[in-house]
Amino acid sequence: MPSVSPRATRATRKAAASSSESHDSKRLRPATPQDLREGESSGDESLPEDLDDGWGYTFQAGESVWVRTAGGNWLRGKVCGDITRKGRTRTTEGLFYPVKFDNKLRKYFAPLNGEIKPDTPHTRRLLKEAGYVDI
Questions:
Q1: What is the pLDDT of residues 64-110, one digit of tens each?
Q2: What domain of life (predicted)?
């Protein structure tokens, strides 16, 4: 899967401190059906203006995404059908989606932490604007 090397962004400066990858499965719990309903995006949310912006986006199993690793790189991945979990994000409780990336790794990422984005033209434009060229 393609990866891109970062240019200095808020994400690379804060990656170690704020990445949900530091959350292990013991801190995350399976999301209930009510959690999933409450976590669904209403469609009223504006698109993020920066790669680091959190976003109340709802992901579906099999959806192609971009995820930010602890090292600050953005990699393509796919939301896998495993259990969506709930846990503490930077500011509140939120959903964490399981993503397979780099052909072998699976970790949980939270859209409210700004570390997972859907693979859309808007996200690819944000990546290019931030200096990521291998998209």
A1: 999 999 999 999 999 997 789 999 998 889 999 999 998 888 999 99
A2: Eukaryota
Token output for 73: 């790189």
> What is the DSSP code (8-state) at residue 59?
P
How far are the Cα atoms of 1, 58, 135 from residue 103, in angstroms, in the given order? 7, 23, 17
Q: Give the Cα separation of 24 and 115 in Å (integer).
A: 16
Domains of the chain: 3-129 (2.30.30)
Judge contact between 99 and 67, C-beta under 8 A. yes
Query: Do 111 and 26 meet the contact criterion of CB atoms below 8 Å apart?
Result: no
Q: What is the largest CA-CA distance in the chain?
A: 40
At 37 the three-state DSSP class reads helix
Q: Which residues pair with 123 in a beta bridge?
A: none
CB 97 within 8 Å of CB 79 = yes
